[in-house]
């Protein structure tokens, strides 16, 4: 606001040089005035401090060649390209934060600048330029820019890491899916092989062994041999019974004898018949029966054991 007011006052026509010097000497911005030939005719104290030149050193000197001959990137700036010099030619105000000024010692510094034409009788007769050193501001901007770039790079790296991790998880997921499918196939094949083996054993016993037992019964001499043959036949039937096989697989706490008794109960045989077949006492059969009910968790219910065994989906 101070710069704009000063320039407005100049254009309004401050005729007293002393008054102009007094006003600009208190400003925190550097001020210099160029004539229509681009030569310096005035500099305030702040401009002298920032540039290292005195007003006497630069009066009637070409401002562009001395203090404004470089672009922001350090390359040379020709007089024809100088936007501040062109204010006198175009009569248009120029403002920027992307210019460099050169000090007396040859060093440069970034500036915030505002150049305005001084017009008399509708003709540009001079220009007044106000500027300030924005080195600290540029340093802050550069630090922010670097921080932003570093953040962008971290985000980019993190995104790449997450993408890679996601790809690895997808690959592992596909592998697990493939393994799961393969496992299901193997389990199915195992069940089929197991079933095929059971059927083969059952078929072999029925077709090869049972006929031999029937023939032996014809030649058995005495009830003792008949009893042994009946027991052998019964045991073979228990071995090849699908119910017995599956019952022993599901209820591993059942003993072999308990599985035999359970199979006979399921087939509708009485305790006496089971005792005769297994050559054990009826009390022993009843004891096995109670153990079976207990292991099948029927001991506290009134459920019929045979009906329960028939209901099992084994």
Please summarize what this structure is.
The protein has 314 residues and is α+β, with helices and mostly antiparallel strands. It contains 13 helices and 5 strands.
Helix/strand layout:
Blueprint (H helix, E strand, L loop, with lengths): L1 H11 L4 H9 L4 E6 L4 E4 L1 H7 L3 H4 L4 H5 L18 H5 L3 E9 L5 E13 L2 E11 L1 H85 L3 H18 L1 H9 L5 H11 L4 H8 L3 H14 L9 H7 L3
Antiparallel strand pairs: 1-2, 1-5, 3-4, 4-5
Helix pairs in contact: 7-8, 9-10, 10-12, 10-13, 11-12
Task: Describe the fold and architecture.
The chain has helices at residues 2-12, 17-25, 45-51, 55-58, 63-67, 86-90, 135-219, 223-240, 242-250, 256-266, 271-278, 282-295, 305-311; strands spanning 30-35, 40-43, 94-102, 108-120, 123-133. It has a 5-stranded antiparallel beta sheet with strand order 2-1-5-4-3. The longest helix is centred in the middle third of the chain and has 85 residues, at 135-219. The chain has 314 residues and is of the alpha+beta class. A hairpin with a 2-residue loop joins strand 4 (108-120) and strand 5. The protein has 13 helices and 5 strands. The protein is rod-shaped.
* Strand adjacency order, main sheet: 2-1-5-4-3
**What amount of the residues lies in strands?**
5-15%
Considering DSSP H and I runs of 4 or more, what fraction of the residues is helical?
A: 55-70%
Any idea of the CATH topology of the largest domain?
Answer: Beta-Lactamase
Summing up helix and strand content along with how strands pair, one would put the structural category as alpha+beta
Envelope shape: rod-shaped
How many extended strands? Answer: 5
CATH architecture identity of the largest domain? 2-Layer Sandwich
Distance between the termini: 96 Å
């Amino acid at each position: 606001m101070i710069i704009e007011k000063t320039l407005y006052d100049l254009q309004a026509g401050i005729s007293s040089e002393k008054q102009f010097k007094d006003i600009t000497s208190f400003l925190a911005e550097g001020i210099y005035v160029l004539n229509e030939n681009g030569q310096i005719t005035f500099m305030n104290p702040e401009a002298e401090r920032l540039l290292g030149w005195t007003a006497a050193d630069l009066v009637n000197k070409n401002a562009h060649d001395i203090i404004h001959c470089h672009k922001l990137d350090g390359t040379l700036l020709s007089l024809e390209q100088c936007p501040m010099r062109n204010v006198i030619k175009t009569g248009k105000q120029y403002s920027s934060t992307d210019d460099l000024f050169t000090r007396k010692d040859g060093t440069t510094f970034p500036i915030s600048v505002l150049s305005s034409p001084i017009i008399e009788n509708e003709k540009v007769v001079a220009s007044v330029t106000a500027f300030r050193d924005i080195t600290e501001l540029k340093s802050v901007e550069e630090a922010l820019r670097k921080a932003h770039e570093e953040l962008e790079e971290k985000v980019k790296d993190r995104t790449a890491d997450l993408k890679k991790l996601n790809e690895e998880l997808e690959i592992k997921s596909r592998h697990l899916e493939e393994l799961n499918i393969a496992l299901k196939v193997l389990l199915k094949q195992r069940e089929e092989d197991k079933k095929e083996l059971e059927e083969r054993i059952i078929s072999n016993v029925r077709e090869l062994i049972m006929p031999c037992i029937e023939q032996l019964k014809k030649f058995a001499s005495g009830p003792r041999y008949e009893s042994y043959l009946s027991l052998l036949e019964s045991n073979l039937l228990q071995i090849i019974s699908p119910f017995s096989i599956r019952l022993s697989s599901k209820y591993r706490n059942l003993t072999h004898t308990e599985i035999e008794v359970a199979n006979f109960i399921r087939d509708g045989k009485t305790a006496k018949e089971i005792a005769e077949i297994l050559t054990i006492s009826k009390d022993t059969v009843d004891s096995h029966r109670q153990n079976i009910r207990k292991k099948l968790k029927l001991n506290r219910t009134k459920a019929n054991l045979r009906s329960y065994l028939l209901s099992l989906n084994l």
